[in-house]
Amino acid sequence: MTYWTKEIFNTKKPIIAMCHLQAMPGDPGYDKAGGMKKVIEGARKELHALQDGGVDGVMFSNEFSLPYLLKVKTETTAAMARIIGELMSEISVPYGVNVLWDPYASLDLAAAVDGKFVREIFSGVYASDFGLWNTNCGEVVRHQHAIGAENVKLLFNIVPEAARYLADRDVAEIARSTVFNHLPDALCVSGLTAGTVTDADVLKRVKGAVPNTVVFANTGVRLENIEEQLTIADGAVVATTFKYDGIFQNNVDVNRVKTFMTKVKDFRKNFE
Asked: Is residue 258 exposed (0-12), middle (13-18) or buried (19+ Cβ within 10 Å)?
């Protein structure tokens, strides 16, 4: 079966690397002295390290806008648009965006910067670290079409980080009903937080429930488990393992990226 991922990334089982943006105007951790110039230069270094390391795609996110909002402020989307806009001529791989945790803002940003995909929480009701987390996928998709972003691929995170479904639902059941009701372009399966390994058994159950839908391993993919994860999943979203010493807060280490991608490319030969 040929998935849309092959058309965008020109490979099976693509690796989408996260380009984590530092805190921006309005964020508690924003470096006002360094200003946006410092944020942009940091993003530029991260982008080039990921691309030089050989990743298949990049997803820009406001990862250090902690603590996250469920309805993002305008200044965050505006800052991200400026950063990506200034870097656009240097981006050499397919890219998408994730404005944590606001699907409307993610789509607005994707439309503004020609992003090919977004990852978000589009469906479900959760008890989370951010409070009660509700969604309205029908409204979001209508907004997507209203702003001319209907070709932007929607990656649904169905096992949200730091959250749990209010109802006691089986993950395979969630996968099947999400695909039936919302027609997602892909499902993302996560661990508890960034860097936490995605449970291979959960990943297997989700993929088994929706064999004709793209399924990504969304967190905790590492050098030692990449073969196991990609045997099941159709690709992976990777961030923490690309950073110095594999620590979330650190910058990207191009050598770790190269080592990881060399193993991935060798493993992918089995699926050609």
From this structure: middle
Answering whether pTM is above 0.90, one says yes
- Mapping DSSP onto H, E and C, the string for the chain reads CCCHHHHHHCCCCCEEEEEECCCCCCCCCCCCCCHHHHHHHHHHHHHHHHHHHCCCEEEEECCCCCCCCCCCCHHHHHHHHHHHHHHHHHCCCCEEEECCCCHHHHHHHHHHHCCCEEEECCCCCEEECCEEECCCHHHHHHHHHHCCCCCCEEEEECCCCCEEECCCCCHHHHHHHHHHHHCCCEEEECCCCCCCCCCHHHHHHHHHHCCCCEEEECCCCCCCCHHHHHHHCCEEEECHHHEHHHCCCCCECHHHHHHHHHHHHHHHHHHC
- Read off the pLDDT of residues 16-25 as tens digits, 9 standing for 90 and up: 999 999 999 9
Angle (CA) 64-240-265 rounded to 5° is 135
pLDDT at residue 142 tops 80:
yes
Superfamily (CATH) of domain 12-265: FMN-linked oxidoreductases (3.20.20.390)
pLDDT attached to residue 195 = 56
- Token pair listed for 182: 């919302």
For residue 18, give the nearest of 70, 57, 68, 65 by alpha carbon.
57
- pLDDT score, position 2: 77
Q: Which residue is listed with tokens 């050609």? A: 272
pLDDT in tens, 39-64: 999 999 999 999 999 999 999 999 99
Q: What number is the average pLDDT over the span 86-109?
A: 98
Q: Predicted confidence band at 90 (pLDDT cuts at 50, 70, 90)?
A: very high
